[in-house]
Design brief:
GO terms for molecular function: hydrolase activity, acting on carbon-nitrogen (but not peptide) bonds. Its EC number is 3.8.1.-. The chain folds into 2 domains: about 110 residues, Urease, subunit C, domain 1; about 300 residues, TIM Barrel, CATH 3.20.20.140. It contains 15 helices and 21 strands. Strand 20 and strand 21 form a beta hairpin.
Amino acid sequence: MLVLDLLIVGATLVTGTRGDEIIHDGHLAIEGNRIVSIGRREDIPDGTDAARMLEIPGRLVTAGYVNVHTHAVLSLMRGIAVDMGFAPAYTRGVPHGHDVNEDEAVALARLGALEALSFGSTTMVDSWVHAHATLPAMAELGLRVWSCTRFHDVDFTRVHEGVWVHDPRIGDACIASTIDLLKAHHGGAGGRTNVMLAPHAPDTCSEELLRKVAHLSAETGLNVWTHLSQSRIENDLILKRSGCTPTQLLKRAGLLNDKLIAAHCIFLSEEDIPLIADSGMTVAHVPKGNATGGAMAPTPSLREAGARIALATDNLTQDMTEVMRWALAVARLQTGKVSTEWQPEDVYEMATAAGARALGQEGRIGALAVDALADLVVFDMRKPHLTPLLDPLGTLVHDGCGRDVEHVFVDGRQVVGGGEALLVNAAAIRAEAQAAAEAIWERTAAAHHASLGNRDQV
């Protein structure tokens, strides 16, 4: 007799396995933290018994999303920064990392994690400030989190003024804090908390610091997370400083390899694209965030060259279902057509298995398969905007959203039920994040007005 912890029956399953991607009226069996059986209802092994059974027709079950680039704390910019033109670190009059204290970072990180989990992300790759506190706080919601305090040796208190001054002591302190983070949290929470190396961007890290990061990655085997060619400012600075493109600089520093996850990759040269493809690195594609800022990464050219692409929300939103739709639209805008190369199954793979592959977790997360970890999402498709349901995956990509998530399981444990987080007090998280954001913005506004007054006096 097969004794299960959970048996899901009657839903449509998106396995993520080409050729057998959609299973109607299926079953999915979980024992402990792993999937032990998947198939049609009639394929349930004889003699199967389950401690809990979910009979859920009208639902779609997918692998949990793997969001490979986000800043959960930057939910504090919601509704504001998107209309200011560029990333907060480069913008005057908005809160910067050094303006946020540890308690505020935790409150806002938990809000970002709550949104991500409620919208179907089971794995997040996150970086900003106070990671030693935000990493375990986010994991308390039940997520898998890869995190790190951002590496830099630029003085970030001056970047928004257009001043780049590098100090090796800042970079060394970042490395030391990450080594402490590694000792405290890597492989923690039953394997759900993990550490990576996060050099912020080529323009905010000296070439010396980038080489140190490459050495540390080779020494520890850790992934490296960064921004790459996210702005013309970055490209111009690197050309002036190092005489090359940011992509070429990362190659020179020893970082352009299969451990690298680089976000945006918007302003690439023709020479950069084959370098990226040949390196095995992963492009963290942020289609919505880039498009709302008036830019698009050249994903059709990257994909044609053989580059690995995974999807990410960056900041302000955590809806990976919406991001899939934007990824499809952005590619089709660039190619000027609907083609077999850019279909719903392609962007779904980018939102799930491609992210798992980038993290070295292929076969463990990112797909519904026997022996994979039981990280899965249940979408309620019994809604007007999802009816008629004729092509389940196409309907999810083109018409679904994070609010359609009904249940989420991570490591076999249910962490969202009926659309609500089960392990935390969501109302308290929202209230604490609201108070933190208001306090931060109030301080920032006062400081900005004071600086303008001082400038007028001069």
